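Thread: quick sanity check before group meeting

JM: Hey all, I'm pulling together slides for Thursday and realized we never actually wrote out the predicted structure for the chain we discussed last week. Dropping the sequence here so it's in one place. If anyone has concerns about the input, flag it before I start.
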Amino acid sequence: MDKPMQLDAIDRKIIHELQRNARISITDLARRVGLSKTPVAARIKVLEDGGLIAGYRAMLSPIKLGLSHVTYVEVRLSDTREAALTRFNIAVRAVPEIEECYMIAGGFDYLLKVRTRNIAEYRRVMGDQISALPHVHATSSYVAMEAVVESAAVNL
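JM (edit): ok, ran it. Output follows.
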């Protein structure tokens, strides 16, 4: 396992600002963190090369795309040996409506976050795709009524 990077207060400020706006200019970023452009650019390079900054991407609004229906699904498998888990993991990645998938320690095996346009589309995804995933034994669905906190930002 990779060793965690050691971050100082300036690194944390840089990361915070980049998470808020990855398109910020080096000049503006330098001003916000209290350094000149060259050391800020060098610090960003170290953070990128070290793998802490894994990439940059555009964050799309699911609501503007008409994808406002979120359901969390508990999945219990009929087989939890390594080969079965691997088959499930590979297959679940192929379902585009599954936004997140976590293996869980507890009363079920996986937790999925499924994003669709409406309940009818969710029902189709559940019936045609999720229920057909390898080794799925049982599922429980929980429809989200409102996103109170939803952020990809990591707090340091």
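AS: nice. Residues 37-49 form the longest helix (13 residues). The beta strands are 69-77, 98-103, 110-116, 136-143.
JM: adding both to the slides.
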